[in-house]
From TrEMBL:
<feature type="domain" description="HTH arsR-type">
    <location>
        <begin position="1"/>
        <end position="92"/>
    </location>
</feature>
<dbReference type="GO" id="GO:0003677">
    <property type="term" value="F:DNA binding"/>
</dbReference>
<dbReference type="InterPro" id="IPR018656">
    <property type="entry name" value="DUF2087"/>
</dbReference>
<keyword id="KW-0805">Transcription regulation</keyword>
<dbReference type="Pfam" id="PF01022">
    <property type="entry name" value="HTH_5"/>
</dbReference>
<dbReference type="InterPro" id="IPR051081">
    <property type="entry name" value="HTH_MetalResp_TranReg"/>
</dbReference>
<keyword id="KW-0804">Transcription</keyword>
<dbReference type="InterPro" id="IPR036388">
    <property type="entry name" value="WH-like_DNA-bd_sf"/>
</dbReference>
<keyword id="KW-0238">DNA-binding</keyword>
<dbReference type="InterPro" id="IPR011991">
    <property type="entry name" value="ArsR-like_HTH"/>
</dbReference>
<dbReference type="InterPro" id="IPR001845">
    <property type="entry name" value="HTH_ArsR_DNA-bd_dom"/>
</dbReference>
<protein>
    <submittedName>
        <fullName>DNA-binding HxlR family transcriptional regulator</fullName>
    </submittedName>
</protein>
<dbReference type="InterPro" id="IPR036390">
    <property type="entry name" value="WH_DNA-bd_sf"/>
</dbReference>
<dbReference type="Pfam" id="PF09860">
    <property type="entry name" value="DUF2087"/>
</dbReference>
Amino acid sequence: MQLDKIVNFHKTVGDKTRIRIISLLRSGPLHGQAIAGKLGLKAPTISHHLKKLKDIDVVYQRRDKNTIYYYLNESKLERLTHAIIEVGGNAMNEQYAVSQEEKAKIIQNFTDQTGRFKRLPAQRKKKLILLEHILRGLEHGKSYEEKEINEYIQTYYEDYATVRREFVMAHFMYRDNGIYELNPVEMWPV
């Protein structure tokens, strides 16, 4: 499951009203007015929260004559809830599983005597191994400004923008407003 979907799910259900709606719908389908009445909120507020839950496919609706009933998509809710446990698990890591000897050989083939990269490989598996190699010199839990990351990458490879982008796309690092942090090793694809 994509990391973006997991994050979006947790952002959406990270609201007290939405959690209460999910709790109500676990007992069975309800129409918007009934949900509003049970929660003591106005119908437009409930409609807003139901739309957010529908957007992530946790809630779906069915019409019965003039009334729209909302149902909890329990299987989807369960999958999304458990997806965070699987992040960094075998499903991601098996795809790029490589022995330490093979990693060392790949690093040796793509670096010169000084440890700088000759080029980035086109093959994803090899590229991830080289990216991981670079990251081993950074500290977990430390925040880095973009300038610091650029300078660090340049000690290995000239095209720092490409490498920096690859760090984020491969989920080695997290970026927010020009600040970079290493993701937990369990999220790394190698």
